[in-house]
Amino acid sequence: MNTFTIFLILIVLVAFLLVVVVMVQNPKGGGLSSSFGGGGTQQMGGVKKTTDFLDKSTWALATLLLALILASNFAIPGAGGAQDSKVINGDDTEISVPVTTPNTSAEDTATPDGATE
């Protein structure tokens, strides 16, 4: 198992956990805490801490997901290999890396009119 596969598994796991944490929260502020009876001014023990925990875990998982995605960029297979590159001049003409041509003998060359020399 290479490094990129490990990063990919971690990214999927953190993304799943982030979805679960976000789905548990109520968009109107009730969330998991309102199901414990803490919807009004009366707060039961630990209910306020539940919303704080969900809020902090959302930010932590989102930050971890972003960090894993950025770190996985360095582990992509084949990303560091040598590749041909092209340079664009100021006048929009491309200069490409010299390409080697196959060896041709005098017998293989032809003149423009099709007759051999």
From TrEMBL:
Keyword RNA-binding recorded: no
Regions of compositional bias (Polar residues) in chain numbering: 98-108
A Pfam family hit: SecG
Keyword hit for Protein transport: yes
Transmembrane stretches, start-end: 6-24, 58-76
Region (Disordered): 81-117
Membrane-related topology note: Multi-pass membrane protein
Keywords tagged on the record: Cell membrane, Membrane, Protein transport, Translocation, Transmembrane, Transmembrane helix, Transport
Subcellular location: Cell membrane
Reported function: Involved in protein export. Participates in an early event of protein translocation.
Family statement: Belongs to the SecG family.
Protein name (Swiss-Prot/TrEMBL): Protein-export membrane protein SecG
